[in-house]
């Protein structure tokens, strides 16, 4: 390993969560209905407006009431940072109000203050897999330009209230999910059930504008704020050295990189302009839009990393499918997989770090990475999650190598430091945490928190600044 492979002083170790996956209390204190509240089967499933089916998102793990105890456990692990999201519907219940819900503002201020009390840096995602349901029903979601105005008002409200306490922000969680789960990513519904790329890319343009305007207003309120984008990164390998496979991998990666290209470079890349022409997609771009994108790029690149993908032009290879985060891909014969079929590739994290830093030369922040697994409480009350320790150890080791390669890395917040509701399947048996929550996918259990073996392991990792893995 390079002698330069060392985590920098002040590296932001911690964990990451999303409001709709752990807060519960989905109608408390004036909160409005969100897209997550009508998604009882996860982000890839169609919405159920009747809300007759049990929806674990409605209950979460009751973080809305237990945040002080949970943050105390994060502090015990030594967290330097905690990434969480704000539920848009707690601040603007319908999304198009002129004035915010003060009870929602106060709740998140209390969470922020509790973190600061424990010397934990708050890292806030402004919109994470949820948006006001009213904006879907009344306006058609992000394909409607009016949402740019509503989002800008929402972001400005947060910056005005919290800018003296919160330095790190992200505008949209995994913004490229819009391509794969349009309802979750953009509140888009299609009459025939088939994805309409015209609407999807129009919605993307509006989200890019919303993101850029958030950067603009955030920096106007406080120039010291660090406002980043956030993508679901999925590095793609060619299945073989066949040139056609290599180009297929390039095309697959562009589907992700397009979203960070626009927010980080400030313009639409030629490959996407050509794609739109070839597919008869005409994006409505108003005067001044391109200037806004160019002048208000993000300060850093936030991203999730769970697995890599493989591309091939061989029909036989295409039959060998592997499950994955948001979409399936071709099985990589060199990799093992999790219980949910997600292929485990620590070296891919180093590759992604180098790919993104070479491309943008902006600081990177790994804000999601972790292993979902079925955890079992032993007879002695312990939870021996060595598989999770092995997964995280291998990925952190590759992060360290990436730093040795010259990558500027701000921090690492593992996904789900406390068990929460899975976004992809809306269940609790798929657990990520260092902290076990006694609750099942039917919402039954004591809700008691238990430390897993990985709790003390991660505590030592943080305490040694990544030297003791």
TrEMBL record:
Q: Which GO terms describe its biological process?
A: carbohydrate catabolic process
Q: Which Gene3D superfamilies does the record cross-reference, listed alphabetically?
A: Glycosidases
Per the record, what is one GO cellular component?
cytosol
Identify the keywords attached in UniProt to this record, alphabetized. Glycosidase, Hydrolase
**GO molecular function (one):** beta-glucosidase activity
On the tree of life, the source organism's domain of life is: Bacteria
Active site positions, chain numbering: 368
Pfam families associated with the record: Glyco_hydro_1
Q: Which family is annotated?
A: Belongs to the glycosyl hydrolase 1 family.
| PANTHER family noted in UniProt | 6-PHOSPHO-BETA-GLUCOSIDASE ASCB-RELATED, GLYCOSYL HYDROLASE
Q: Supply the name of the protein.
A: 6-phospho-beta-glucosidase
* UniProt organism field: Halalkalibacter alkaliphilus
